[in-house]
Amino acid sequence: MKIINLILGLGTAIIVGSLIYLGIQTFYPAPEYPEYPGYPYPEASRSFNCNSNDFRCLDEEQAYYDQQDRQRTDQSKEYDKKVKEYDEKSEAYGRNFFIIANITGLIVFIGGFLLLFATTMANRSIPIGIMLAGMASIISGYATGWGGTDDKIKFVVGLLIAIIVIGGSMWLMQRYQRKDAQFPSQAQP
């Protein structure tokens, strides 16, 4: 029975944790990195067969390649602008993902915690799996939003989560120790 509980708990943690992550990605997708415009360059290179004395042809060739260079420079500047915008959006996304994942993870953890009160000892694997999924969401929030979140926010959120998780776990353990002390299991001969 312990193996089945372990499998059910881990399965629940993986499924609910994946659903949390996919839910966040569905309703708040990550920004996409911009593609370099015109890469590979689609324009066909013009062929110039200029004689060394044909200055008009040489001027046309030079003007053509100067125009190509200007277009590539403009494309490069536009690309750099898009990359800068992406970096700003990515930083904001990381911060927001951190907050969303932590709030969602905490709610799921508390939900699993509360489900423990409605279950018997044999059926605790599902609520524990839900609690693990909540903790996985919190960890995912830290991993994804680490660079985009202010250290003060990370500290305050981490402190709040630690108080809830550790305090709640200690309270739950004491509750079940008292319950076990009141109703000792009967040994069978």
Unreliable runs, pLDDT <50, ≥5 residues? none
Counted up, domains total 1
Q: Roughly what percent helix?
A: over 70%
- Secondary structure tally, helices: 4
Q: What structural category arises from helix and sheet content?
A: mainly alpha
How far apart are the termini?
A: 21 Å
Mean pLDDT across residues: 81
- Main pleated sheet: none
- Over all CA atoms, what is the radius of gyration? 30 Å
Oligomer: single chain
Percentage of residues in DSSP E strands:
under 5%
Rough outline: rod-shaped
Give the strand tally: 0
Secondary-structure element pattern, one letter each = HHHH
What's this, in brief?
This protein is mainly alpha-helical and 189 residues long. The chain is 74% helix and 0% strand.
Would you give an account of this structure?
The model has no long low-confidence stretch (mean pLDDT 81). The relative contact order is 0.14. It contains four helices and no strands. It starts with a helix and ends in a 7-residue tail after the last helix. The protein is 74% helix and 0% strand. With 189 residues, the protein is mainly α. The protein is rod-shaped, with a radius of gyration of 30 Å. It has one domain. It has helices at 2-27, 55-115, 125-145, 151-182.
Task: Outline the fold blueprint.
Blueprint: H1 2-27, H2 55-115, H3 125-145, H4 151-182
Note the main attributes of this structure.
74% helix; mainly alpha; 189 residues
